[in-house]
Amino acid sequence: MVTERRQVRLSTRGRRSGEPRTVTLFAFVDGKNLVVVGSAGGAARHPAWALNLRDSPAAEVLDGSEQRAVQAHEAAGPERERLWEMVSAAFPLYASYQRRTDRTLPLFVLEPASD
Predict the structure, then answer these.
(1) CATH number belonging to the domain at 5-112, selected among 2.30.110.10, 1.10.3720.10, 3.40.50.300, 3.30.420.40
(2) In this predicted structure, what is the pLDDT of residue 85?
């Protein structure tokens, strides 16, 4: 299962500061949605952007030259299993990152925000 991988800029709202925070990530295409992985290279802690999305799921993505509002949710259950298979097949380093840590690497689905 091969999927398209893109480099995007994700902008979230800082959960403590309330200030905009932007990070560059790989995103994987899943239909009209993008999927991002909170790997932090297998570090023991979740990346700040992932905690920001958990606190406030409204975000913006710059994908190429297209900026769009998105609504995030953390994948769980069968959805997470399907997406983990997809992203780890497309970027096998994620499986290595998962083995480095006791935490489960979170997967976030970025859906286009409703108008």
Answers:
(1) 2.30.110.10
(2) 96
